[in-house]
Amino acid sequence: MTLDWPLQIGYFLLNLTIVGLYGMLLSGIVARTLAKVQGRIGIPVYQPFIDLFKNLGKRTAVSHGAMFYLGPVFRLAGGIGTLAFVPVLFGSEMFSNFNMAGDLLLAMYFMFFGQLGMAIGAGESGHPFSAIGIARGLGQMTAYEVPFALAIIAIVVQYDTLSINDIVAAQQGGVTHWTLFTNPLAVAAAMLAFLGMTGYSPFDVMMAPNEIPIGPPTEYHSSYLAMMTMNRAVFAGAKLILFMDLFFGGATNLIELVIKTWAIYMVAVVVGAAFPRYRVDQSIRFFLRYPTLIGVAAIAYTQAVLLP
Amino acid sequence: MNELSLSAITLATGFGLLLIGMWGMLVRKHIIRIIIGFSLIDTGIHMIMVSLGYTRGGTAPIIDAAVERATAVNTVVDPIPSALVLTAIVIGLGITAVMLAYAVQIHTHKKTLSIDDCTDGKW
Amino acid sequence: MVDALINPLNLVIVGLGIGFLLPLVDGRSPAIRRGLFHLTLAYQALLPLLWLMWLADGAAAQEIQTAGFGPPFSINLRLGLEEALFVAGVNLAALLGGWYLGDLLRDRAAAMSAFLILAMGIDGMIMTRDLFNLFIFIEITAIATYGLLGLERSAAALTAGFKYIIATSLASTFFLLGVMLFYYLTGTLNIDGMREQVGLVQGPIGMVAMALLVAGVVIELKPYPANGWGLDVYESVPPGIAAMVSVGVSAGALFALYKVLPLTAPYLPAMAAIAGATFLVSNIIGLKQKKARRLLGYSSIGQVSLVALALLLLTRLDQTAAIPLVVGGLFVNHLVAKAGLFWLAGALSRENIADWHGLRARPLLLVLFGLLLAALAGLPPFPGFWAKWELVMQLSAGGMSAWVALILIGSLVEAVYLFRWFGHAMQPADETASTPAMPQLLPVVFAVLGLFGSGHIAARSFGPDTLATLLPVYVAIALMLVDGLPGRLKAMLTLAIVAIYSVFIAPELAGLHRLFGILLLGGGLLIAAASLYRDDSRHGYYPLLTLLLLSFGGLLQAETSLQFFVAWEFITLSSYMLLCMGRGAAPFTLSYLIFSLGSAFLLLAGFGLAYAHSGSAALADLVRVQQGSGWVLGLLAVGFLTKAGALGLHVWLPGAYAEADDDFSAMLSAVLGKATIFGLFIAVMQLGVKGGAATAVMYVVGWVGLLTAFFGALMAIFQEDIKRMLAYSSMGQVGYMIAALATGTHMGWVAAGYLTVNHLLFKGLLFLVAAGVILRVGQREMYRMGGLIQNMPFSFFAMLIAIIALSGVPPLTGFGGKWLLINALLEKGWYWQAGLAFFASAVAFLYLFRMIHTVFLGQRKRAHKDLREAPLPLLIPQGVLVLVILVFSVQPNWLVGPLAEIMAGHAPQTLVVNGTLVQSGLGYWDGFMIINVVGAVFMVPLLMLLVLSRFMHVQKVKQFNIVFAAERPESPETTHYAYDFYRFYERALGFLIVPRATAFWNGVTEWSHSLGGGLRTFYTGNGQTYALYVLLYLVALYLAVGGST
């Protein structure tokens, strides 16, 4: 397969911009929505953009060493890379990114790239809260990874492929072909895992955003923080697209993409607005209990009902 | 036919001595008595050996005028057990002597001849 | 004249003559007397040795007649090959034992003659062909023994001797009665004559006759529980005498058994049962024993029973051709090693085995001791090893698998107490004990040389290729002789030897063997090169390291299962010894050895069964095993899993990996562990695809592999000690390889190969980094480190590369392994297992982050301010490993492609390598493209930050310049988040890692010790009880066999 590299890179930069902007906007929308739920006025939806530019404009920065400096680079590269390995729109060469480099497993494992780099960078700051936050985050990650992996296995078995494009293709031809309706157990397990992935309440103890600064961003500021904000947008976008591709039929145009990803995201937001925070050991046990059981049931269901 | 043959008497006596000796070895606590038990066993065995070689009404195993050369195999007493018994007696004597020497030494060291006090090694 | 000198009858005549002559020269000249004594022994030893050579060259067996008549009219003796072997062995032991006893016998002419007569009596027992004469010789031996037992007039020795007399005199009484009954029934005393008329021995009298004869001989062999008298003697009489009783008298009794056997065929099964039970029970009781000499007694009884058992079972199978090698080998092994150990025990004169510490300070003693124990445990190159191998093969072929199991379990139990003893000897001494004089050690040295020599001869019977497998030992011995050289020079020497050897064998290796050749020898060399960082002498380290590395070559070149097994045992032995050199390793060496030997014995059983089913000993013929392939695979798999540290069998692993020398830990985990995978490959490739029971075995192995992966990772995250963490990590990673292998598919094997290569790279790297850090910091607990990135940037970088490669995050090599593994599992249909694999690999992130954070990131301790980077000899191998990881990261198809070719042909192939693209039936992966995309993507934010930095004032700040909740951090110790890093995880999932396996194995240990304690309560110490046992043995024998027919 020969690639038209310049063109491909151009397409990808376009995708990156779209997803990045959309991601930023989404976080503004979410903040606004949550404020309404709680009876506040809240920030304007464009506030994240203001914050971003403000952080980028800071003129001083403190560094704790080379890895600290590179931490946000790893983080953002992780977000962008994940997007690079996920096709954004089905059937569109322009929006297929570098999906040809690897399949679903690549996307799944590349998600860790940024987290690991970030963790190491934050670790060099020497701040104990960074390390505590990372430890909790990693611990929680191992737990929600289980239902997520089981759900993925279920649909890989169902569609007999690891290629994201083929999985989307198999869901074309009507709403009833979506994984959501053909394999609801797998989707349930994956969506529960998704709650952990997004880091909203009740699974936000590793960031504890409301009271003390904890977690990787503790020591990061100015441009570093700006890059991390950008990553949140891109990475969240990439994950949403991945979920949409795997479970909700993918999207053939940008409108469909926006609607679907917004809807998926709102699940986490609504749950976050409604539930108080878990302690980290509680959330670990939570994910390893019902979500995992659902995941196990999903595989059994796929094997017993869908395959014959 | 009712009369007891010599060999049967010897055999029975031999076994009797053997059993008495066994009893002595296993039950009596005094080391000297144990040694006597062994001697009885030994003697019993020797008697059994001799009786096994005896041929009823046989004669001494010397080929001379009294014995027909052709029928000698059936008429003479088997000489080998008698010869073996001699060796066995010598050996039994040797062993008894060693046992007695041990008894003396044990008495010198432990001032007792009870086998129950000779349980130095165990596990 | 010459004919007269070499007449075998001289063995009896000269022994008896000089024996009675000695007291006559009493008083005149002690020197002449002593000279005569030793000269006689030397003559007695030389004569059968000469005959042994001639007979081995094909001379006819010597029939010796007496009194000018032929049998049956007079007594005749025979000196055939087997007689010559036993006589030579006994007389050589007597020669060395006489030398050893020199001081004790010095002024006691009677004792000297008793010693000569004892040797003569045993020779007679071996050579005579007349049953009554056998009785005479038994009694001569007995009386001489009684005399010698009373040599040291301690109360314990005297009472022990008296018990011995009671028991053996009863036994010989039985024997005499049995002889007479046989004579009565057959009319002859000649054994050969009786054999022809054995049909006459029948009916009740015949059965009684046999029972008496058998009991007479068997009691002499000290069967359990009628053997307390023998043990007391071993414990209390001078060791030189005990040695003679243990090896000499037993040899005579064994040969008597050999002669009586054809006459008492109906009793054979009963005798085998007695021998087997005695072998097993005496070894189990040995577990409880603390006194060195009594322990040797238990071992002695066990070994003699094993020889008897081998003889009985081979006779039963009618495999008389194997008897010389098996019985001869086991006998010689026992004779020399046991005598050597008795002598050594006497020379050291320490009663309790726990007092044997401090031998480390005296290398010669330690080496002798270790070699003798290794011989007793049946390790190569000693004769017992070859004998046991052949025995297991013959028994397996004869369908006697239960006996094989009994023998192997007994041997394992024996190894436990023998090497526990060795462990005591390795402990540092707290006082300076007297060093034994050289004359006392000389016989021990000869014994060890004799073991090597006889082992060599035994190996020769398996052909030149097998003989070549002994090469590593000889090289190691040669290196041991130059052990005085400086450490680094020895390291260079080792590297040079192994490098030359590797180049030499490289052309012979192909396919899988070449892959593992590169891993084991190439990787081994690289890791071995790291040992240059130490400049101390490391006595014994380099010879053993050479042995280990060369044995890898032996493993690769092995064509028969025997050659494989020899190399395997060398690896076990050398790695055990190397492990023993670790400073804190003492508590863990024993479990390492026991599990390694257990693994080896399982392999032995598996190979035996394979031989039984395929009739071939070639490794490549495992594939011909059809029926029973499930059992063979099961045994081999469990054997390899034990050595790999699979879950439940892993209890030895963390301690061993953590406490070995730092550079040797790298060797253990990164290289040595691959030998196990190699073995598993060979077994699985040939047997795993057979279907039937083999499929079930593979399924179970697959689960075990993944559970190992998961629990290894889970246990790793809770470790404070960096090497323990890496140890558990190794366990987990090996679990993936096992699981991948167990799929039995082409994809799975490629995955296993890939994981193996990758694991060598990153785990070698991690252990070497750890070695450097430990060298500088002087500690292993990670929370005592921190912030070392500033001092050791390259080490940090190496660890970073390693943990990315381990974690499976693209773009480094790890991802390929995960991709292949998950694809293999999914293609196989092992969906739950794939889920577990995901979980395990996520858990691995936890310990990886913990490790790199706690050691290199966070707050640096004040004391560590001036630490330097690790030394160059450690960094260079790390650099090479990093380079290789990076190369395979850019071009993973350079690895996947050859692997796909190697694994092809055994199973259907779904993996397609197309340029840089790798495709499976499910997905695809282009490593080259990934790393390019990732590299490009990484450049975007990097450039962005660099540009932004130009407009910013970036300031490097000090350690404590952090936003710390409005407090001022006080010290690195209180600010470094490191200790008990995953407390919350323990709260959530801690219930999973309760050490159940450890508890189980502790239970097994305790239970077997209690069993030993229970079984030995039969030993009341009372001579009369023992006499009763002897009598009951006779009765039981008759009732069990004679009474039932």
Structure characterization notes:
The complex is a heterotrimer of chains A (about 300), B (about 120) and C (about 1050). By secondary structure, chain A is an all-alpha fold. Chain A has helices spanning about 5-35, 45-55, 65-85, 105-125, 130-160, 165-170, 180, 185-200, 220-245, 255-275, 280-290, 290-305, and one strand spanning about 60-65. In chain A, α1 (about 5-35) packs across α9 (about 220-245), α5 (about 130-160) packs parallel to α12 (about 290-305) and α8 (about 185-200) packs antiparallel against α12. The longest helix of chain A is centred in the N-terminal third of the chain and has 33 residues, at about 5-35. Chain B is mostly helical. Chain B is elongated, with a radius of gyration of 20 Å. Chain B starts with 5 loop residues before the first helix and ends in a 13-residue tail after the last helix. Chain C has about 1050 residues and is mostly helical. Chain C has a domain at about 460-580. In chain C, about 70% of the residues lie in helices and about 0% in strands. In chain C, a hairpin with a 4-residue loop joins β4 (about 915-920) and β5 (about 925). In chain C, α3 packs antiparallel against α4, α7 (about 130-150) runs antiparallel to α12 and α14 (about 290-315) packs antiparallel against α18. The radius of gyration of chain C is 32 Å and the shape is elongated. The chains are: A mainly alpha (about 300), B mainly alpha (about 120), C mainly alpha (about 1050). The interface of B and C includes residues 26, 41, 88, 105 and 115 of B.
Q: Could you estimate the helical fraction of the residues of chain B in percent?
A: 55-70%
Question: What is the strand content of chain A?
Answer: under 5%
Structural class determined from secondary elements of chain B:
mainly alpha
Which two chains form the greatest contact, residue counts included? Answer: A-C, 87 and 80 residues
Radius of gyration of chain B: 20 Å
Amount of helix of chain A: 55-70%
Largest sheet of chain B: none
| Total number of helices of chain B | 4
Weakly predicted, low-confidence segments of chain A: none
What is the CATH topology classification name of chain B? Answer: Helix Hairpins
Mean pLDDT of chain B: 83
Secondary-structure element string of chain B: HHHH
